[in-house]
Structures
1.
Amino acid sequence: MPRGRYSLHDPHDHTPLADEHFQCAVGPSGWRYVSQLTTPSGDHRGSVDLTLDELGRPIRLELHAAAWQVRGAALDGVTWVRTDPTGTEATEGNVPAHAFTGTSPAFLVATARLLRLTPSATATRVRLVAFTDPVLAPRTVDQSWALLKREAHTTDSGPLTVDEYQVTALDTGEQHAVHIAGDVVLAAPGIELEDLESPPSPFT
């Protein structure tokens, strides 16, 4: 069960945004990721709770940020309910998309798990609903993912397989690289893995 800490920063000017203290686990029915986020000064900022089924589909999502809350799941595409800080207003949304995304590294692992790509120059298109900080506003985004290469690295705890993805935002054409080992993001724009207490869990 990997657990550790990511640091999140603005990918453009590198302003520190948060630390994400996480743990995740592969189980017989899929994968679960939970985390708590703190500001650079140490204050509580939010949380992530994401559960995937064995095919990588989001069967449960719960996000908290700035007193806003989102609960969602894969249902007729993806469906979610967003609640305001006072708890008096709840807005339901539904989009014919494949999954969710956001600033948490969990969503990169989830998308990679959903697509199950093999090394190839061929890109696969995916439609996602992104919940953007700081108020978890939903936005539909289209991306393409390509698994450029898969390399095995020798470590003290055994071989570690690292996948390098190229992710393209289809609305702007902007491309970036994402490096994932099992269920842990090693590097991505705005994300640094600062601490890892146990090796990543491989997806079988």
Note: Residues 105-115 form the longest helix (11 residues).
2.
Amino acid sequence: MSHNGKTPVDFWFDPSCPWAWMTSRWMLEVEKVRDVEVRWHVMSLAVLNEDKLDELPEEYRELLEKAWGPVRVVVAAQQEHGDEVVGKLYTALGTRFHNEGQGPVREAVVAALKEVGLPTSLADFADKGTYDAQLRASHKEGIEKVGQDVGTPVIAVPGADGEQIAFFGPVVTPAPKGEEAAKLWDGTLMVASIPGFYEIKRTRTQGPVFD
């Protein structure tokens, strides 16, 4: 349990990923209907894929190159202003990147920093490796809980024996609200807690629905 008696839910995200964004908005709904508290951490699709760039389409390689900037800015904000700014900054960034369709451009990053009261100079870290060691450590912590063959997001919660249960996803659109959010949370925990359970999947028939 966390200090306030709520169950901690660790959530690893890359701010550039639209599917992680959908899951994160669902997770905020879960906070309203279940006694949980989200703790936000960064992971990086660029780091995840850096050893297999030659196998990826050029278009996706370009997206991964652009993905370095926002995640570096979030890590810099965390390192210089504390863990409590991560979730707020993620919401400000994601709203601009995804809901408003601006993408991970510098103007969106600067506006997001300004919205949450952080120095806009943090945007300069997008092109610097100052905190890449911390970025990679956070990424490693999340991805090692689930394995290398998944993406973002990764979620980890305490299991019945005190050990963390971790999983990739769920991938869902639009983000469920209210009782639907609760049902998905309860069901996800139920299947994820079964030893030896690995995967449920079906073909996506639509892209992320931002609302």
Note: The radius of gyration is 17 Å.
3.
Amino acid sequence: MLERDITYTPTLWIHDATHPDTRGNVKKVADAGVRIALGSDTFSGRGLFGANTLEEAELMVAAGMTPVQSLVAATSGAARQCVRPDLGTVAPGKRADLIVLTADPTQDISNLRALGMTILNGEIVVDKR
């Protein structure tokens, strides 16, 4: 995977119960330095739209990734895999799509659920302040 610059997308929320080795694989791949993208297949299966993405980030951390690794997989890692150079990082010339949280997800990945505001293309679309 490293030699061929292959990105690993585990989709744990689907495979976690049926494939018990998946969590161990995530840790091995992350420790080896392979690129990981958070992919939730959010349009399929159970759950509300977008909720699977939050669960996937939590499962990645439960599998041994750090919260920061999970956040990178969900942002720049996913944007790279989708060939979207306009997404995934905060930088000039990129889309202004952001979530503002009321708690630090680098300390506890479940803090991704502490939504304060959503900004889409520079416009506030959700404001829970």
Note: Strands lie at 98-101, 115-120, 123-127.
4.
Amino acid sequence: MVGLIIWQFSLLKLSINVRLDKFICESTPLTRSLAKKALHRGDITCDGIVVKDSGFKVTEGMRVCLQGEPIALVGVRYLMLNKPVDTICSTIDETYPSVLSLVDVPKPETLHIAGRLDADTTGLVLVTSDGQWSHKITSPKKECGKRYLVQLADPVDAGLIAIFAAGVELRGEDGLTKPALLEIIEPQLVRLTITEGKYHQVKRMFAAVGNHVQELHRESVGQIELDPALALGEWRYLTAEEIASV
């Protein structure tokens, strides 16, 4: 991992009193039943005192330890990852490994992926435990722009800019795609910004005009740009400014 920037909002700051068993589950891999067993064994101390009551209230600033090791709430997390090929945007490994297998953080099971990329697509993937924040990115109503660098099999000309701006008819879809912004860098290399997330949308848009996408790389989501310091497979926490931009 490169350029680690930690930005976590402690749940403890949002709630002055948290049940001890809930605190343990939020801070460790322990389930509620295992947390209760740890309490009954006397494995938990709060400010140096053994506590066995699962309903005991943990307050802000209190030092909680499990078998002598301090534990703390994980909090809400926001990450960016530079996705390599042959990984999938799923919470579990399937044909290819999940991108979450590249992220070494506590309690990864609380994370989900905000917007997916195909296995052969590289680039910016956003990962979070904040469902409302994720919804702002993925909801079609929010029209959050996603910008892609696209390598094509055949050259394109400037006439395609107007076609994509007007919307393209995709096979099996009713109506046209929403207006898309096309920038031609080279005859076979373009940037495309879309505000939807239809299945294989970028590939299907170029297929609809008789072209074929050879390589696809996502550069940005909304105002969040992929950090150029991140090599393929690397990740970092988002900054406060990046989080607030969504």
Note: Confidence is low (pLDDT under 50) at residues 1-15.
